[in-house]
Structure formats: structure tokens, C-alpha cells
Amino acid sequence: xxxxxxxxxxxxxxxxxxxxxxxxxxxxxxxxxxIDEIRAIAHDLSPAGAAYLLEQVNPEARTQLVGIxxxxxxxxxxxxxxxxxxxxxxxxxxxxxxxxxxHELDTDDAADxxxxxxxxxxxxVLAALPAxxxxxxxxxxxxxxxTAGRLMQRELVxxxxxxTVGQVIDYCRExxxxxxxxYDLFVVDERRRLMGSVALGRMLRTKRPVPITEIMDPxxxxxxxxxxxxxxxHIFRDQNLVSCPVVDPSNRLLGVIMxxxxxxVIDEEAEDDLLKMGxxxxxxxxxxxxxxxRQRFWWLLVNLGTAxxxxxxxxxxxxxxxxxxxxxxxxxxxxxxxxxAGTQTVTVAVRALAMGxxxxxxxxxxxxxxxxxxxxxxxxxxxxxxxxTWAWFHDPRIGLIIAAAMVINLVCAALAGTLIPLGLQxxxxxxxxxxTVFLTTVTDVVGFxxxxxxxxxxxx
Amino acid sequence: xxxxxxxxxxxxxxxxxxxxxxxxxxxxxxxxxxIDEIRAIAHDLSPAGAAYLLEQVNPEARTQLVGIxxxxxxxxxxxxxxxxxxxxxxxxxxxxxxxxxxHELDTDDAADxxxxxxxxxxxxVLAALPAxxxxxxxxxxxxxxxTAGRLMQRELVxxxxxxTVGQVIDYCRExxxxxxxxYDLFVVDERRRLMGSVALGRMLRTKRPVPITEIMDPxxxxxxxxxxxxxxxHIFRDQNLVSCPVVDPSNRLLGVIMxxxxxxVIDEEAEDDLLKMGxxxxxxxxxxxxxxxRQRFWWLLVNLGTAxxxxxxxxxxxxxxxxxxxxxxxxxxxxxxxxxAGTQTVTVAVRALAMGxxxxxxxxxxxxxxxxxxxxxxxxxxxxxxxxTWAWFHDPRIGLIIAAAMVINLVCAALAGTLIPLGLQxxxxxxxxxxTVFLTTVTDVVGFxxxxxxxxxxxx
Lengths: 460, 460
Description:
Helix content of chain A: 55-70%
Number of domains of chain A: 3
Largest interface: A-B, 144 and 143 residues
Oligomer: homodimer
Strand content of chain A: 5-15%
CATH class of the largest domain in chain A: Mainly Alpha
Mean pLDDT of chain A: 88
Strand order of the largest sheet of chain A: 1-2-3
């Protein structure tokens, strides 16, 4: 993706404002069938702007718009689209239009789009492409999703180690098919093994006769083609890279990953963590009702299980509840405070694990700290709630019991809030996706058990 | 920050593994006072690696390490450090060492570090800097935090519109103080107003006599110096930029924002949203116990308020609870399922709002869809829970009542889960920070009220 793909006149205006006003205009044009006006507007939009527009309108208008625009749609628009919307747009396009778009895109982006197509249509599109492009896309598709092999583009500048700066510059001036978004050149040996890289800025500042090996940086990071995209993001983040070469196990240069693709990865990973913590598997704003309901069902079913478990605990104290109805009124407070305090701990732990901040070196310190934090807030809320309860039910004993239960539950919440995500991570399970359900199971069970149990022992 | 700042030999190895083994070695060296070995290790580390190491060790070891390394510490390390840890490290350094570090950094990074210092020490550090650097840093610090003015660096290449490509290349070859991480040159008029940009790759491919204005892109985006960092991230994301010029209101070129600084912003914003949803104000892994406990206290206090409100609702049904103890056993299930379903909706809504995906154009569609999803899952879980309850308490009427309460609460959860974040956003309140607490208030109150209320009407 070229950083020169910019919308004329878009400048720094707020994308949302621009498209909200635009959207009304487009829908009006659509209503009155003013096709040329729509084409003119689409022509002036950046790919991101066009994608945003297509995402905002309803499915019928979307299909109509795609039908009108067809090849006038900038291929980059397909790259920028939300996956659910992209599927719809691709359905509205002919295989030959899709092939045309794939031809103009970098391999990694073309592969991303072809991946979403039904098998038969994908074959048709591939057949319509030149042999070398077809081969490149098929090779990319052979790499597992979410790995460096998928993120990299094959378009790059590699030069032999025997050249001088002048030869490299002449080569760049003559080759017409060079990608626009080059920031580093790569130096390779006769077997295409990566030897080093040269930043363009460095090259520009060097005189022509200097051998390229003299200004190349031999100690550049490279990414194995099998690396997970999360690891790729880590490397870019830690080393402040703009582009990074991808190599096979014998260090041969296969492609290059650009920072804009890494931005997308970082967004995806952040979205993943946020959504999973909230019990949603994926961004489903643009998904149909049935799919969304089905995906969310499973999470709710797991939660129903834990809620039933908590109810079974309460069921053990029917006698106490019947005798002192205040217990039924107060018991949700202890459970709820434990759940909230534990969620705070889990959130910090999940984020720290995702960023690689929690390791065997500082784990003990983290757990101990969280227990102190839980204990401190437990004591304060024990005091507050104890006094409130005493005043409410005119019985200091219930106040004492709820205070004790609060301290117990907040310390347990801290312990569970740290150990659950750490344990899941160690077991190879994503801590973002299931930490909270285990946590609330603990805080509900401990909360009800501590409060009702203490009441059973001391009040009856 | 230069993309050439790389650790020798670090390659693509996993940062965590590298530093876990290293950490043991460093701590051992520290124990036996082997200062030279520690210096040698630090010398070989990348800034991110050194920062990671300092974050992992305990505070005493940290102070010792900083005392040993002092000026051997790469200034970039300070930039990479977590804020809490950075404060400690800066305390262990002399003002003149900090001045030395600030001197080597880009203005934006230097300003970031000086910001954290106590007023008096900041004055000392500034006094130790050359006048032009001091002025640049002070100017940067005058911009509000989290705006483009703070993110930009002043180091850039700006050339007059009258030059040819050859003149620009000669200028670059002669100027020794050019930043390493240049990707675009900027063309300015005689009053330093931004006219366009030239990608380095483009320049390299052009012959010397061509006027620079001929290959410049006049329609580049630029960012107003007052723009919020969130907006900056949006512009980079939408237009796949690597660098972007920053201008004042009369379009004069003030600085340039680099993509690596934007990566940090995106990480920060994602972290913010995740942590706020979990009821934590900021990343507090490295903060002391008392501060962490105090910060989390307020969120728990708000939650106590909502829990008490829910208890007050339950308190209205003391009579019913005393007569049918099964109500006490079952009531948390309805509230909990509502809370979980609502959290799914809130999470999707908060993320969509953060990414600008929800606008007046599609809001109605989103709300209606969520209500259908809530209703569908409500009906399914009503059936499941109704049957379980009937079997458990041998009373079909309790099963019917809990089923009805479940549908009511899941539809209310969908409605509240969409309208609360949208309303908060419209009111100018960050939806990530307070949506869940409002939501659980609604789902608890509606859950208890629907279940106990229906029971009061139909069972007694």
C-alpha cells in the first residue's frame, strides 16, 4: 500500500464529518439515479473514505453503489473494508473485476481478498491473472493465516553486494516497476541470502562511487516467514521499524513487511483483547443478526453454568435465608464487589501479559502487590459496608459478618485475578477470552459461601 | 527515533526469552559486583531491551543498575521505559546526565522525559542544554499533552521550491545534522508554508536537473498542531502514512510526526479503552501498592453504590423472599445473565465508537439489531433456564416466571448496552470508562425487579 494514495483535498479534515455530510448526498443521488454524480464523488474519495462510505450504508444501497462503481472503485478500497462488508461487495463484483483489482494490489493484499472468495470463484479470478502474479498469490495463500508469510509483500528492492551506490541509483532510475513505498533497500548475496539493508536517506547522502556494502547495516532484524503476526508487531514496536525483511530458514530474502500492515495487526490484536474480555468473539457490528446471536450464545451459556453453580451454593443455605431475610437482600453486594475488584486485577494482568510485561522475574512481586491492594480496599469497604448494614438492619452482627465476608472475597479476588490469567497463559489458553468467567465463578462462590456460611455459624 | 537503532545480534529472537535468561545473568553479576560485565551487557542491548530489563527487576536492583550505567545508558532507553519506572530511573540520574540524554534525543522525546521531572530539576536540566535545544524543548512543552504539537519532532528536511533534484541531493550530502529516519522531504515557500512532499524513493528515481516541484505531491495531508493524538492516529491509519507534516494555522511547517510515535499512541489508546472497561484508570503494574489501591477505590465505590441500589430493590420483596426461598436462590441468575449479555453489547459499541464505525447513518440499524440479538438469546435462555428451574423446584410457575424475567432483562440489556455508550459519547463523556457501571445498574435493577415483581404478582 503506497503512502501516496491520498484523497485530493482531503487534508486533515475529520474523516467522520466529511463522510456524514457526503453520505446524505450520495444517498440522495442514489435515490434519483444520478449515476455520474456518484462516480464523480467516488473518484475524489480516498480508499479509506470510500470503504467507510460503503460500511455506513445499508446492504441494498451498498449493492447498488458497487453495481454503479465497479471498476471505478479503487482496489485499495477492498483492502480497507470490514470483512463482513467486503464479502458482500465481492459478491456484487464479477470475477474479472476482482482479478483486475488483484492485479493492481500488492500480493499480501490481493491474497487477503481472494481468501474470502468461495473456492470456485477464487479459481476463476486466479485464472484471469498473469501467471507470475497467480503463482505469487498462491504461494502467499499457502502460508498459514496470521503469520509473517501472509503479511509480507513480495514487491521490494534487492541489490547484489557487488554494486556501488551509483549503480543502485541507476538501477532504481531505470526500473519502472519499483514499488512506491520503498524505505529500505536490501543487499543480498548470489544465493539471495540477506546481507544487510540500506536506509534510503543514507543512500541519498552518499557519493556514487561508494560500494553499497560500505553503507549497509549488516545487523538488521529479520523476521522468519513462519513468525506469528503478534511477534511481528512486537519486533516493529520494540525496534521502531518502518519495514522489515522476511526470510526463510536459510536466511533467503522472501519479502518485506511494511509498517502500515503492522498498524492493522496492532489494531486487530487490541480489538481482539478488548472484545474477548467483553465476551465477544469478533467485531460483529456488520454481521447479520443470526450469526451475532449464535456467536454470543456460547459465552452466555458458559455464564449460565457459573450462575447456576453460584445458585447451588446459595441453595445450601435455604434455612438461613428463610430465617433472616436480610441475608438475601445483602448477599449480592459481596459477590458483586468481589467480581468488580477481581476484574480490575484481571484486566491489568491480561494487558501486561499481552505486552510481555509479566514474566517469571516479576510475577511473585505482582501477585503479592495485588493481594495487598485487594486487602487494603477490602478493609476499607468492609468498614463502609459494615456501618451501612448495621444502620440498615439495626444489627451489628450482620454488619460484622458482611465486613468479614468482604475482606475474604476481595483477597480471594486478587489471588484469583492474578493466578487465573497466569495459569491460562501457561496452559496455552488465551487469558483474555476466559479469565473473567473463571474469575466471577470464584468471586460468586466465595462471596456467597463466606457471607452465608459466616451467618450460618454466628447468627443462628 | 531512528529505525537503525538495533541491537547487535538480536535479530528476530524472542525478546522475552532473550531477557529472561539475561536477567538472571545481570542479577548474578550485580550480586557479585561485577560492574564491567554489566556495562558490557547493557552496551549490547537495544534501547527496548534495556528498558525491558529495568522494568523487570525490583526497585533496589533498578537503582543500583542505573547508578552503574549512568551515561552508558542509551538515551532511547528512557523513551521506551514505562512511566512509573522512568520516574525512578530519572531520580537516580544527575541533572547533567539527563541533559546529556535530552541533547541526543529528538525534541518530542526529550520533552516527554523532561515533563516528568520536578520543576526545579527540569530548570537545571534545561539550563545545561544549548540555547537552541532549550528553546525547542520549551516550545514543545508549551503545547498541551496528547496533541500533535507534542508528538512532532522538529528535525526534518525542508527545501525551497526553487531547487532541482540535484540541488536537494547535494544539500543532503553536505548537511551533517540530517535526521537518520527521513522518508519524505518537504517543499516550502519563502515563508515556510508547506507546498508538498517528495517521497525519498521518488527522488532516487528522478534525474538531477528535474525541478523538485515537478515530482512533489502537492496534495499531501497535513495535521494541525492542535489536533488530538487520537485524530493523528486516525489520519495515519486511514491513509497508511509513514510520516506526516504538522502545520500552524497559516499552513507553516512546524514539524513532522513519525509512524513509530503513532504506534505508541495506538497502543496507548487501545490500552486506555481496555483498562477503562475493566475499571482501571491506567496501567499500574509498576505503580506502588498505595497508589494502585487508591486509584481503584473510586471505581469500587461507584460499584458499591449500584450494588446497594440493587439490594434496595430486593429489599422491597422481603415478604415474597421469606415465603418462597427459591426466589432468593434463583434471583442472581437473571441479573447475572443480563449483565453478561449487556457487556457483550457495550463492548462492541465502545469499540465501534472508538473506531468511528458508529455514526448517525447506521445507529438505528445497530440498536435494532442488538435488540433482536438480545431477544433471540433471551428466548433461548428463557427456555433452558425455565426447564432447569421447573425440574429443580418442581414448580412450573417459577420456571415460567424466571423465563419471562430472562427475556425482559436480555432485551433491556441490549437497549441499555447500545443507548448508554451512545448517550455518554454524545454527552462528551468517554463511553469506555462508565458504560459498564450504568449498564449493570440497569441489568441488576431490571433483573431483580422483573423476577421478584412477577413472582409477587403471580405466585402469592
